[in-house]
Amino acid sequence: MMRIGAVTAVIASLLFLCAGAAAPSALELSDATFERTVLASGKPFFVMFYMPWCGHCKEMLPVWHKLTTELAGEAGVAQVNLEKQTGLQWRFRRQVRGFPTMLLFRDGKFYTYSGTRDIDLLRKFVRGDWSTASVEDGAQAPVPPSWEEMDLSSKVLEVAGDFYRRLGDDYAGIWTNHRDLLLAAVSTAFSLGGIFGFAAKILIDWAIPPLPPKPRKAKQT
Fold it and tell me: Could you give phi then psi for residue 76, rounded to 5 degrees?
């Protein structure tokens, strides 16, 4: 009986290992492999950008791995850890505004998935619903170039653009979160400016009396 039990345990362990080995897993991309694996592959690629500390990302990973099997032969399924891949983090900084973000790459463009984590919806998006993504909302656009692909003038424009966007976001945040306080501060500044300006004019007139008017010359007839 002990021998039979040992054999059963071994068989169960082997089945468990085989099941684990056969479990689907999405391809992990890096800064070095993204270009040739996704953009140069000539086939659609569905890529999830995530952070390892993100709770929603952790919930999404099992579904994403299952999607690898669901779309086998139709499209590639991959994922990018943006905490490690800083080059891709910079490249898609304007497209990835939350985690996880799923982008479908095909024919030199990307299409942003904005649905739920339902695997049927994800599969439908890859199989044709991507065409309904809104251009106006930035849901589909040409793939942005990497830093290495840009010339010097493009890099300067990108850096300047990032600076002004951050500046605009900062002021927008102040206006959104502290509108009443900001209006009160502006109103107070104008009031104090008027008061101090009027007081300064009185002091200047008192300290420096105005010059008497010049006598007019009599007209010669």
Answer: -80, 150
